[in-house]
Protein backbone atom coordinates (compact mmCIF):
# COMPACT_ATOMS: atom_id res chain seq x y z
CA UNK A 1 0.00 0.00 0.00
CA UNK A 2 1.52 3.27 -1.07
CA UNK A 3 1.20 6.52 0.84
CA UNK A 4 -0.94 7.94 -1.97
CA UNK A 5 -3.39 5.04 -1.73
CA UNK A 6 -3.57 5.26 2.05
CA UNK A 7 -4.23 8.99 1.96
CA UNK A 8 -6.82 8.72 -0.79
CA UNK A 9 -9.99 10.69 -0.28
CA UNK A 10 -12.04 7.66 -1.24
CA UNK A 11 -14.00 6.36 1.78
CA UNK A 12 -13.49 2.85 3.09
CA UNK A 13 -16.25 0.24 3.16
CA UNK A 14 -15.75 -3.02 5.07
CA UNK A 15 -17.82 -6.00 3.92
CA UNK A 16 -17.95 -8.68 6.64
CA UNK A 17 -19.04 -11.95 5.07
CA UNK A 18 -17.82 -11.18 1.55
CA UNK A 19 -18.49 -14.60 0.13
CA UNK A 20 -20.16 -15.42 -3.19
CA UNK A 21 -23.62 -14.01 -3.78
CA UNK A 22 -24.62 -11.03 -1.65
CA UNK A 23 -21.15 -10.44 -0.19
CA UNK A 24 -19.43 -10.22 -3.56
CA UNK A 25 -22.26 -8.06 -4.92
CA UNK A 26 -21.90 -5.63 -2.00
CA UNK A 27 -18.19 -5.41 -2.71
CA UNK A 28 -18.64 -4.71 -6.42
CA UNK A 29 -21.39 -2.13 -5.88
CA UNK A 30 -19.52 -0.17 -3.21
CA UNK A 31 -16.33 -0.27 -5.27
CA UNK A 32 -18.25 1.07 -8.28
CA UNK A 33 -19.63 3.83 -6.04
CA UNK A 34 -16.10 5.02 -5.27
CA UNK A 35 -15.29 3.19 -2.04
CA UNK A 36 -12.10 1.31 -1.28
CA UNK A 37 -13.41 -2.03 -0.09
CA UNK A 38 -12.07 -4.26 2.69
CA UNK A 39 -13.28 -7.82 2.17
CA UNK A 40 -13.56 -9.99 5.28
CA UNK A 41 -14.32 -13.70 5.57
CA UNK A 42 -12.62 -16.90 6.68
CA UNK A 43 -11.62 -17.99 3.16
CA UNK A 44 -8.75 -15.64 2.34
CA UNK A 45 -7.86 -17.26 -0.99
CA UNK A 46 -11.34 -16.69 -2.45
CA UNK A 47 -11.42 -13.15 -1.06
CA UNK A 48 -8.08 -12.33 -2.65
CA UNK A 49 -9.42 -13.33 -6.06
CA UNK A 50 -12.33 -10.93 -5.66
CA UNK A 51 -10.13 -8.13 -4.28
CA UNK A 52 -7.88 -8.40 -7.33
CA UNK A 53 -10.82 -7.33 -9.51
CA UNK A 54 -11.62 -4.24 -7.41
CA UNK A 55 -9.04 -1.40 -7.52
CA UNK A 56 -7.93 -0.19 -4.10
CA UNK A 57 -9.47 -3.15 -2.29
CA UNK A 58 -7.93 -5.69 0.06
CA UNK A 59 -8.84 -9.05 1.56
CA UNK A 60 -8.60 -9.93 5.25
CA UNK A 61 -9.10 -13.24 7.00
CA UNK A 62 -11.63 -12.86 9.80
CA UNK A 63 -13.61 -15.28 11.95
CA UNK A 64 -16.58 -13.41 13.43
CA UNK A 65 -16.89 -15.95 16.24
CA UNK A 66 -13.44 -14.91 17.50
CA UNK A 67 -13.07 -11.47 19.06
CA UNK A 68 -9.29 -11.49 18.65
CA UNK A 69 -9.65 -12.26 14.94
CA UNK A 70 -12.08 -9.34 14.51
CA UNK A 71 -9.78 -6.92 16.33
CA UNK A 72 -6.75 -7.99 14.31
CA UNK A 73 -8.60 -7.66 11.01
CA UNK A 74 -9.87 -4.15 11.71
CA UNK A 75 -6.52 -2.99 13.04
CA UNK A 76 -5.00 -4.14 9.73
CA UNK A 77 -7.70 -2.33 7.74
CA UNK A 78 -7.01 0.90 9.63
CA UNK A 79 -3.29 0.57 8.84
CA UNK A 80 -3.73 -0.36 5.18
CA UNK A 81 -6.74 1.66 4.06
CA UNK A 82 -7.66 4.04 6.85
CA UNK A 83 -10.76 4.35 9.05
CA UNK A 84 -13.90 2.49 8.02
CA UNK A 85 -16.71 4.83 7.02
CA UNK A 86 -19.23 2.12 6.03
CA UNK A 87 -19.58 -1.29 7.64
CA UNK A 88 -21.78 -3.93 6.01
CA UNK A 89 -22.30 -6.91 8.31
CA UNK A 90 -23.32 -9.72 5.97
CA UNK A 91 -22.02 -12.66 7.99
CA UNK A 92 -24.78 -15.09 8.89
CA UNK A 93 -25.60 -18.66 9.73
CA UNK A 94 -28.88 -20.32 8.80
CA UNK A 95 -29.79 -23.09 11.22
CA UNK A 96 -33.06 -24.99 10.75
CA UNK A 97 -34.59 -27.76 12.79
CA UNK A 98 -37.24 -28.92 15.21
CA UNK A 99 -36.72 -27.29 18.63
CA UNK A 100 -36.49 -30.62 20.44
CA UNK A 101 -34.04 -32.04 17.92
CA UNK A 102 -31.93 -28.91 17.60
CA UNK A 103 -28.40 -29.31 18.88
CA UNK A 104 -27.36 -26.90 21.63
CA UNK A 105 -24.18 -26.09 19.73
CA UNK A 106 -26.13 -25.19 16.59
CA UNK A 107 -28.40 -22.80 18.50
CA UNK A 108 -25.37 -21.10 20.01
CA UNK A 109 -23.55 -20.94 16.66
CA UNK A 110 -26.50 -19.15 15.05
CA UNK A 111 -26.50 -16.54 17.81
CA UNK A 112 -22.72 -16.21 17.85
CA UNK A 113 -22.47 -15.42 14.12
CA UNK A 114 -25.65 -13.42 13.58
CA UNK A 115 -25.69 -11.41 16.81
CA UNK A 116 -22.49 -11.67 18.84
CA UNK A 117 -20.22 -11.21 15.83
CA UNK A 118 -22.32 -8.26 14.72
CA UNK A 119 -21.83 -6.63 18.12
CA UNK A 120 -18.07 -7.16 18.16
CA UNK A 121 -17.66 -5.94 14.59
CA UNK A 122 -19.70 -2.79 15.19
CA UNK A 123 -17.66 -2.10 18.30
CA UNK A 124 -14.48 -2.34 16.23
CA UNK A 125 -15.52 0.50 13.88
CA UNK A 126 -17.60 2.79 16.07
CA UNK A 127 -14.76 4.66 17.84
CA UNK A 128 -13.32 5.97 14.56
CA UNK A 129 -16.78 6.83 13.26
CA UNK A 130 -17.59 8.74 16.43
CA UNK A 131 -14.30 10.62 16.19
CA UNK A 132 -15.16 11.61 12.61
CA UNK A 133 -18.77 12.42 13.48
CA UNK A 134 -20.10 10.26 10.64
CA UNK A 135 -20.39 6.68 9.46
CA UNK A 136 -22.80 3.93 8.46
CA UNK A 137 -23.29 0.53 10.08
CA UNK A 138 -25.52 -1.69 7.97
CA UNK A 139 -26.71 -5.08 9.20
CA UNK A 140 -28.08 -7.57 6.69
CA UNK A 141 -31.10 -9.10 8.39
CA UNK A 142 -33.99 -11.43 7.61
CA UNK A 143 -37.74 -11.55 8.03
CA UNK A 144 -37.17 -14.23 10.67
CA UNK A 145 -36.14 -11.41 13.02
CA UNK A 146 -39.83 -10.50 13.28
CA UNK A 147 -41.47 -13.90 13.49
CA UNK A 148 -40.62 -17.35 14.72
CA UNK A 149 -41.97 -20.26 12.68
CA UNK A 150 -41.64 -24.03 13.06
CA UNK A 151 -38.08 -25.01 12.25
CA UNK A 152 -36.66 -21.50 12.64
CA UNK A 153 -36.04 -21.60 16.39
CA UNK A 154 -32.31 -20.93 16.21
CA UNK A 155 -32.27 -18.65 13.17
CA UNK A 156 -35.23 -16.51 14.22
CA UNK A 157 -33.88 -16.06 17.75
CA UNK A 158 -30.46 -15.06 16.42
CA UNK A 159 -31.84 -12.63 13.85
CA UNK A 160 -34.21 -11.11 16.41
CA UNK A 161 -31.20 -10.50 18.66
CA UNK A 162 -29.41 -8.88 15.72
CA UNK A 163 -32.39 -6.61 15.02
CA UNK A 164 -32.57 -5.48 18.66
CA UNK A 165 -28.83 -4.86 18.63
CA UNK A 166 -29.15 -2.71 15.51
CA UNK A 167 -32.03 -0.71 16.98
CA UNK A 168 -30.13 -0.13 20.20
CA UNK A 169 -27.06 1.09 18.32
CA UNK A 170 -29.18 3.31 16.07
CA UNK A 171 -30.76 5.02 19.06
CA UNK A 172 -27.46 5.33 20.91
CA UNK A 173 -25.30 6.68 18.10
CA UNK A 174 -27.68 8.30 15.62
CA UNK A 175 -27.53 11.59 17.51
CA UNK A 176 -23.75 11.48 17.11
CA UNK A 177 -23.85 11.16 13.33
CA UNK A 178 -23.76 7.38 12.94
CA UNK A 179 -26.41 5.89 10.66
CA UNK A 180 -27.26 2.36 11.81
CA UNK A 181 -29.61 0.54 9.47
CA UNK A 182 -31.09 -2.92 9.03
CA UNK A 183 -31.61 -4.32 5.52
CA UNK A 184 -34.22 -7.08 5.75
CA UNK A 185 -34.00 -9.63 2.94
CA UNK A 186 -37.31 -11.42 2.50
CA UNK A 187 -36.86 -14.03 -0.20
CA UNK A 188 -34.50 -16.61 -1.63
CA UNK A 189 -31.28 -15.00 -2.80
CA UNK A 190 -30.09 -15.98 -6.27
CA UNK A 191 -26.92 -17.79 -5.27
CA UNK A 192 -25.49 -21.04 -6.70
CA UNK A 193 -26.11 -22.85 -3.42
CA UNK A 194 -29.82 -21.94 -3.46
CA UNK A 195 -30.80 -22.67 -7.06
CA UNK A 196 -30.74 -26.50 -6.74
CA UNK A 197 -33.07 -26.33 -3.73
CA UNK A 198 -35.76 -24.62 -5.84
CA UNK A 199 -35.79 -26.44 -9.19
CA UNK A 200 -38.18 -25.19 -11.81
CA UNK A 201 -38.71 -21.81 -10.20
CA UNK A 202 -38.74 -18.86 -12.62
CA UNK A 203 -35.87 -16.40 -12.55
CA UNK A 204 -38.03 -13.68 -10.99
CA UNK A 205 -38.64 -15.92 -7.95
CA UNK A 206 -35.13 -15.11 -6.69
CA UNK A 207 -33.80 -11.92 -5.10
CA UNK A 208 -30.85 -10.67 -7.15
CA UNK A 209 -27.66 -9.92 -5.16
CA UNK A 210 -26.72 -6.95 -7.34
CA UNK A 211 -30.11 -5.33 -6.77
CA UNK A 212 -29.88 -5.93 -3.01
CA UNK A 213 -26.41 -4.39 -3.03
CA UNK A 214 -27.71 -1.34 -4.86
CA UNK A 215 -30.16 -0.81 -2.01
CA UNK A 216 -27.29 -1.05 0.48
CA UNK A 217 -25.38 1.72 -1.32
CA UNK A 218 -28.56 3.83 -1.26
CA UNK A 219 -28.83 3.39 2.53
CA UNK A 220 -25.17 4.32 3.03
CA UNK A 221 -25.68 7.57 1.12
CA UNK A 222 -28.93 8.72 2.67
CA UNK A 223 -28.97 12.30 3.98
CA UNK A 224 -29.15 12.54 7.75
CA UNK A 225 -32.51 14.32 7.71
CA UNK A 226 -34.16 11.23 6.18
CA UNK A 227 -32.33 8.18 7.50
CA UNK A 228 -33.98 4.77 7.23
CA UNK A 229 -33.56 2.36 10.11
CA UNK A 230 -35.27 -0.72 8.64
CA UNK A 231 -35.87 -1.47 4.97
CA UNK A 232 -37.36 -4.62 3.43
CA UNK A 233 -36.39 -5.99 0.03
CA UNK A 234 -38.24 -8.89 -1.61
CA UNK A 235 -39.10 -10.22 -5.07
CA UNK A 236 -42.60 -9.25 -6.16
CA UNK A 237 -43.82 -12.85 -5.90
CA UNK A 238 -42.74 -13.36 -2.29
CA UNK A 239 -45.80 -13.71 0.05
CA UNK A 240 -45.77 -11.38 3.05
UniProtKB/TrEMBL annotation:
SUPFAM superfamilies: NAD(P)-binding Rossmann-fold domains (SSF51735). It comes from the Bacteria. Pfam families: adh_short. InterPro entries: NAD(P)-bd_dom_sf (IPR036291), SDR_fam (IPR002347). Gene3D superfamilies: NAD(P)-binding Rossmann-like Domain (3.40.50.720). This is NADP-dependent 3-hydroxy acid dehydrogenase YdfG.
Amino acid sequence: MTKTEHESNSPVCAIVGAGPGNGAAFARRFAAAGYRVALLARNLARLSELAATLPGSRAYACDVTDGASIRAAFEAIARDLGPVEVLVYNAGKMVWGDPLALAEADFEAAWRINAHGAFLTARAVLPAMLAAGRGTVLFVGATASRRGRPGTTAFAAAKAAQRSLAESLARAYGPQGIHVSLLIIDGVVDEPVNRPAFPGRPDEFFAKPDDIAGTAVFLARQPRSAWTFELDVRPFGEPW
